[in-house]
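RECORD TYPE: protein structure
NAME: Bile acid:sodium symporter
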Amino acid sequence: MKYVRKIFDNFTLALLGVVLIATFLPCSGDGAVFFGWLTNLAIGLLFFLHGAKLSREAIIAGASHWRLHLLVFACTFVMFPLLGMAFKPLFVPLVGNELYLGVLYLCALPATVQSAIAFTSLARGNIPAAICSAAASSLLGIFLTPLLVMLLLGAEGDTGSGLDAVLKITLQLLVPFVAGQIARRWIGEWVKRNARWLKIVDQGSILLVVYTAFSDAVVTGLWHTVSAQHLAGLFVVCGILLAAVLFVTRVLGRVLGFSVEDRITILFAGSKKSLATGVPMAQVLFVGGGIGAMILPLMLFHQIQLMVCAVLAQKYAARGVEGVSAVS
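PREDICTED:
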């Protein structure tokens, strides 16, 4: 029981509870609109507080950490697609050809932003570098993902929504962060003193993303899209893919001589795939086709990565002087 409790801590149990609530009581209609706005506000507040917490010197140091950023981008846009193709002989028998294409689409997507930064923050990693890498990954994905989709799937799509995506990222992430930087001179010390309870913002933003995303999946027929056999196989496929990525990112960070804080950032920023970017992008890239099977692997992978990374983040957060080598 103690071992189970160690894995399923309060935050992980909260995530499981949110998934169950979304399954049986999904938000829809006006409720979905409300939770969508609430999630956006929580994410904006998250970035505002990060802007208020970080000194300009720390941000410059994070932005100039080019070795870390290159590794994160390589994991996101090179390693993921290579693993997706390499595992084809194993994945296709488990999920079928249609869902396998969805797995390849998942591999072509940029990293998620808010959860990568929130988990890095919870795990006491290099937050400035995480912000730079995750935000840049989303921007690069606007241009790289359609190209990767064409290479991996032979799909063609209209990328005319790229400007809208850039605008959304700018408004939702960059503007609050800059506002926090401006307000730092007035609220910086208050934010520092109250860092412990402000962690609720990090956790709350993740819970809101899980609920709104999973609710939308349930309302649009998540449990009727594929057979039970293929759904079970998809769990296995997503688990294998995530385990492989987490293993490789952890090994690369250690072999290349990064610090523990940098390795945490590489682990969480390099292993994520964005549901918020992937779903609307799929509607553009796969117009006229059945996008349900294309985004189902992404939806499932998104939930699994949140659960697994919640456990990992708590493990890293609990490290002490003696525990650094144990989690490194």
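COMMENT: Confidence is low (pLDDT under 50) at residues 1-6, 155-162, 321-328.
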